């Protein structure tokens, strides 16, 4: 997958999780489903969608509070720097 496409998917995911954070966060399954249905339009395997969530978590762009994922300050700053 081209790097630009991957970056667009991550930007869209972080914008969505930023909105969900204001509502208390999103479950792991909601994150996977959002990436698969909304961003990739069912064009990605569930395994690939899980990888996006894991990569964002490892990079510190999102974190978990209980069972919900939320965007971190680092994630918000990343979005701002990328012009998203």
CATH class descriptor: Mainly Alpha
SS strand fraction: 5-15%
Mean pLDDT: 90
Which secondary-structure class do the elements indicate? mainly alpha
Gyration radius, in Å: 12 Å
Shape: globular
Any idea what the CATH architecture is?
Orthogonal Bundle
Strands side by side in the biggest sheet = 1-3-2
For the terminal residues, how far apart are their CA atoms?
Answer: 20 Å
User: What order do the helices and strands follow?
Assistant: HEHHEEH
Helical residues, percent: 55-70%
Oligomerization state: single chain
Annotate the secondary structure layout:
Elements: H1 3-21, E1 26-27, H2 28-39, H3 46-58, E2 62-65, E3 68-71, H4 73-81
Antiparallel strand pairs: 1-3, 2-3
Helix pairs in contact: 1-2, 2-3
Q: Quick summary of this structure?
A:
The chain has 84 residues and is mainly alpha-helical.
Question: Please, could you describe this protein's structure?
Answer:
With 84 residues, the chain is mainly alpha-helical. The protein has one domain (3-79): Winged helix-like DNA-binding domain superfamily/Winged helix DNA-binding domain (Arc Repressor Mutant, subunit A, Orthogonal Bundle). It is 63% helix and 12% strand. The chain has four helices and three strands. The protein has helices at residues 3-21, 28-39, 46-58, 73-81; strands at residues 26-27, 62-65, 68-71. A three-stranded antiparallel β-sheet has the order 1-3-2. Strand 2 (62-65) and strand 3 form a beta hairpin. Helix 1 (3-21) crosses helix 2 and helix 2 (28-39) packs across helix 3 (46-58). The radius of gyration is 12 Å and the shape is globular. The mean pLDDT is 90.
């Amino acid at each position: 997958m081209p790097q630009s496409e991957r970056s667009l998917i991550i930007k869209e995911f972080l914008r969505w999780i930023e909105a969900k954070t204001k509502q208390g966060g999103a479950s792991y399954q909601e994150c996977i489903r959002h990436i698969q249905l909304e961003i990739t339009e069912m064009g990605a395997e569930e395994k690939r969608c899980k990888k996006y969530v894991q990569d964002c978590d490892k990079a510190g762009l999102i974190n978990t509070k209980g069972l919900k994922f939320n965007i971190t300050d680092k994630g918000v700053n990343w979005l701002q720097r990328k012009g998203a």
